[in-house]
Amino acid sequence: MDIILADDHKLVRDGLTPFLEELDDNVNVIEAAAFEHAMQASKEAQDLKLIILDLGMPGMNGLAGVRQMMETHPSVPVVILSGTHDQTAILKAFNLGIAGFIPKSAGSEVMMSALQLVMAGERYIPSQILVGAAVQDTNRPYAGATQAAASTRAINAARFDKLSKREQHVLELLAGGMTNKEIARTIDLQEATIKIHVKNIYRKMGVNNRVQAVRMVIEPDWSATGARLPH
Length: 231
What we know:
Blueprint: E1 2-6, H1 10-21, E2 28-32, H2 35-44, E3 48-54, H3 63-72, E4 78-82, H4 87-96, E5 100-103, H5 108-119, H6 127-130, H7 147-161, H8 165-175, H9 180-187, H10 191-205, H11 210-218
Parallel strand pairs: 1-2, 1-3, 3-4, 4-5
Helix pairs in contact: 8-10, 9-10
């Protein structure tokens, strides 16, 4: 299977390629140093299964490049690899429908777990999206946002602040697609204890299930009633 790895730093490509080759017995990593090269390579690939894009490489034009790549290959998961800590940009990327966002500062275990989740059809959401700093600055809503949408983001931010550090960690693992049993093994707790944490997360966030909890995280203006407030 073909995987496109687009980053303008050769050191990054050389470092990430071995991880990509571990995802399958038959991986062909296609490298690109600019967005134009990545687009051309994506059109020539025979069995394209994954696209990894550096958000800041030449020709990307920010999220415009991400959108163009996703529109060209709607059935292929796109993962952003970036050193940015711009929470607004990350949230906007998830709203576009990316499969994952991997910080360049991520360790090897995080990198492999993220890529495996994406290849399994899940979404990888980095921890900074799931804790306090990840929630949009409610004093600076998106341009054109309605007062109602800004109010909803403020309410959601307050709910996240109510979560304990342990609950935030459990939420991160939930968003990564883990079951209660897998979370229990990961953080060395009893599954019954995880169930209590999950129940408390739902209560504090005002949601009924993990899908709603994760959606509230990546779509700050989404209300738990199921309606996405207008921008």
